[in-house]
Amino acid sequence: MIVNVCSKNPVKIRASKSALLCDEFFKDAEVRCVEVPAPKTRIPEQPLTEEEIYSGAKSRAMIGFKECNYSIGLEAGLKEIPLPGEDLPRMNFTACVIYDGTSVYYGQSSGFMIPRKVVKIIEEYKVQLDEAWRRAGLTQNDRIGYLEGIIHQLSNGRLSREQYMQEAVRMAMVHLLNKDLFLQQ
Predict the structure, then answer these.
(1) CA angle 93, 45, 14 (to 5 degrees)
(2) How far apart are the first and last CA of the chain?
(3) What DSSP state is assigned to residue 18?
(4) With CB atoms counted within 10 Å of each terminal CB, which end of the chain scores lower, N or C?
């Protein structure tokens, strides 16, 4: 069995491998990296809505489906949290789409709040979360999302981005493993 992970980000690749192989969803799978640049997905570099996040993950999975049994698209982004009386704060989460050449299977991670000053930088300068985090003085790393991730910093080292993204892959696998149940009317 061959599974394409549609990203060059090493964290997304490790998270997918770990969720698939260590959890024994596909224990004998060969997991490959297939780069799918964001412009090909027609989704902004920094998705700011649930629709953009899921569309990006789905587009990556479908574009990267080449010579494989399954392809995985992972997309992280920010969604507004509609809280009455508050300036709409944003929460980061990751969507996972698994594609088998015919059907798509969805999952997502839990979410975590992003500080307003970081969101303002993203909106004003049209930069990715990594860059906004750096501009806010919260890291010196240009690509924190390729390493331990912002969640690692916010959780005081208790949770890595890899662990966080594994959750999204696992939830998409739950959908795939129970696809017949979802087809029932």
Answers:
(1) 55
(2) 31
(3) I
(4) C
- Residue count of the chain: 185
Distance CA 51, CA 41 (A): 13
Given a cut of 70, the residues of the chain with pLDDT beneath it are 23, 38-43, 88, 184-185
Cα Dmax for the chain: 52
pLDDT digits (tens, 9 = 90+) for 58-91: 999 999 999 999 999 999 999 988 877 777 688 9
**pTM (predicted TM-score):** 0.91
Give the pairing of strands 2-5 and 30-33: parallel
Query: Is the Cβ–Cβ distance between 71 and 96 less than 8 Å?
Result: no
| 73-82 residue pLDDT tens | 999 999 988 8
d(CA 73, CA 42): 14
- 3-state SS of the chain: helix, strand, coil percent to 5? 40, 20, 40
Q: Which two tokens stand for residue 146?
A: 């390729």
Spatial distance between the Cα atoms of 105 and 45, rounded to a whole number of angstroms: 23
Identify the bridge partners of residue 5 per DSSP, sorted by sequence position.
33, 72
The Cα–Cα gap between 4 and 29 comes to 10
Tokens of 76: 């992280």
Q: Which residues contact 87 (CB under 8 A, 6 or more apart)?
A: 116
